[in-house]
Amino acid sequence: MKRLTIILMTSLALSSTSVSYAADDYPSSPIKLIVPFGAGGGTDGLARAIQRTIEQDDLLPVPFVVVNADGAAGAVGTRQLLASDPDGYTILQIHQEMFAASAIGRVDYTPADFEPIIQVSEACMFVAVSEDSPYTNLDEMFSGINEAPDSFRQADDIGGATHFPSVQLMKAADVQWPVVPVGATSARFSSLQGGFTNMALLSPLWLERAAGKVRPLAVLGDERYDSAPDVPTAAEQGYDVTACLNRRYWAPSGTPQENIDVLADAIEAAANTDEVKEYLAESGETLKIVRGEELRTLVDEEYATFVEVADIVKGTPTN
Amino acid sequence: MISAYMEVFSFSGMLWVLLGTVVGILIGSIPGLSGAMVIALTLPATYFMQASDALVLLVAMYIGSTTGGLISATLMRMPGTESAIMTTLDGFPMAQKGEPARALGLGVVASFVGGMAAWLVLATISPLLSTLAVRFGPYEIFSMAVVALTLIAAISKGSFINGLLAAALGAMFSLPGIDPVSGALRLTFGVPALDNGFTLLPVMLGLLVLSQVLIDSGSTGDRLIQKSDSSNKVTIKIRDLKDNVWNVIRSSIIGTWIGILPGVGGTTASIASYSTAKGFSKDSSKFGTGCSEGIVAAESANNAGSVGALVPLITLGIPGSVVTAILLGAMVIHNLNPGPLLFAQNPEVAYTIIAGALAANLVMLAVMWFATPLISRMMYIDKAWLLPPIVIFCFIGAFSVSGRIFDVTAMIGFACLGYLMSRARIPLGPFIIAFILTPMAEENLRSGLVVYGNSYLPLLTRPVPLFFIAVSLITAVWAVWSEIGHTRKVNVPQS
């Protein structure tokens, strides 16, 4: 037993020394990409599309491996990244769910504990009401809520990435409404269909999927959708709120900048291939590359908007 | 539509179906490896396949794994998959009585009938049913979960208090994690690993599988199984068929409907139909002792539930379970647009899935029919050969949930708990049922409270919840009443 411990300790020591001056010949061993959600979802889909392209086009000299670590709304996988060495051999792909978990105080890490590598995609939500709803724009909806506040419910994922923009929307409109814990987009759609809730934020994919069953009132992005040029943005209607999910790659803070650049180059090259672009289009997402200082600033600004409404999110009138 | 069937039933199509079904059955029969796991692992490999082949392969794996779970449940009292939990209750006692092939045969035929019933629904009226299913709201699902929870009283025969104790423990262990309504953490005691709560797979593997391994390894040598010569042939007895006509129809309907409800699933389907079968049975005391009705109810409902879960997937693009979520991902990867427009835009995809479900069911029946005589011999193999690999697979299974040692540790803890509970004659069934149903009941009750403005009244004014609440009240009162009667009967001769 003692001998085994010594062997283990030595090999551990060896591996950590080899890591510390790895920056010269980075990457020299396989790179692990943690997907903190289950197989088959949007995060998993993009991660695997990127992985496939990196392998096919030899964008990295070493294998690029995707590992699913589902649980606690992304916190399980994110913690695994936090516990790994900041050497660029373990990275993570997650969207604003990370900000949500941190702003609500469910985890003890913040975006400052990570180094953003690159942002690849963007999918801005839209405000959807059921097709038989009387509302055709945001103003009508807000004044409707003001008149009969007891009969309006939103379906959402409590404490999740879309709950924060929902509260921002409440603040911008100066009305409050109860939020029903329903879950992911598909569950929200089914709740709208069943008539149990009146409004939900849906991902752009559902614009086509739910065509004829829900009515889009506003796009929560900077620009209108190409596929639905008639639907105005919330900002155009006087409410400056956006709700976009951006898929970003992260490394633990302290990862050497050279290694981050190597990774960002490979992922950017992969994202720009036709294969990944086609995947994004099919998933209702758009390619939006942001990296370097610009990304850090964007992350900090966005996280600040989450923190700003965190208290209301925690205390949202539900029960 | 015809061309989709032709493609699936072509030679190459059937090869994928056969491969998927056999792999599914194998994986499903191994405690520790689940259908969801193998389907998730296969998904990346299907990128390079034709979309229709990929979907057929995955659907076949899904259906095969649901059936495979009954093998280890029947022969070893270890559910191979979650949905086979209820099958252990009667499957193992029957096998222990020397009729493993009869138990397996009943399970296989019931699985087939359940699967075919749900397939019929899938192929004919799925759009209609899916619109009905979304009208099944939080209070409807809550009251349904309550009915299923009252089953706890029903399956803890003669040990009512112990059953309730087990159920309370199960409910308690399901609570830590993220609060479904506030999104905040609860009962994690500052342990970060607990913020995902205890997941079903490690709990089930520890409590039901590893604890059984502990029990079995303590009793090597004394073989409890009676051996009979004719026991390895699959013979479907006329009496078994006659006894189960209504049971299999009822269980298939319950299973299909519960399967269609988004987010409920095959395990709940078999819990609900088992309790219903027991309620309708003339002699309910034989449940849990190896009766055919128990096996048939559990197995027809879980397969019907699995196929039923395809209904909201292909009609609305709503995945109701882990596996259907992966299937949805597979469609997106292959550039198909799942959702209400699937039938309009890619009808061949919808029909490929439907045809694949049919083919997988037929292949499953054929494979199991010929394999059962061989498989049932496993019953007589010295356990020393079977237990070590099962332990290894359990460790792999628990670790693979999200790559954490925590889940493995939790599994070992639940194994010890399960062993102690068995020794203390506290039944494990109520624990696992409460563990599965409590979160579902809680989430839906609390969602319902938000929907209905903190009012419990709709539970009594909406017809479906009212019906379910009445059923569960009657069940509970009846269970307590018969328990009192039972204790009296036991006590009288003593005094």
UniProtKB/TrEMBL annotation, chain A:
Residues 1-22 form the signal peptide. Keywords: Receptor, Signal. This is ABC transporter substrate-binding protein. Transmembrane segments: none annotated. Belongs to the UPF0065 (bug) family. InterPro entries: BUG, Bug_dom1. The lineage of its organism: Bacteria, Pseudomonadati, Pseudomonadota, Gammaproteobacteria, Oceanospirillales.
TrEMBL record, chain B:
Keywords: Membrane, Transmembrane, Transmembrane helix. Coiled coil: none annotated. Signal peptide: none annotated. This is Putative tricarboxylic transport membrane protein. Residues 14-433 form the DUF112 domain. It comes from the Bacteria. The keyword Membrane applies. The keyword Transmembrane applies. The chain crosses the membrane at residues 54-76, 103-125, 137-155, 160-178, 198-215, 310-333, 353-372, 384-406, 459-481.
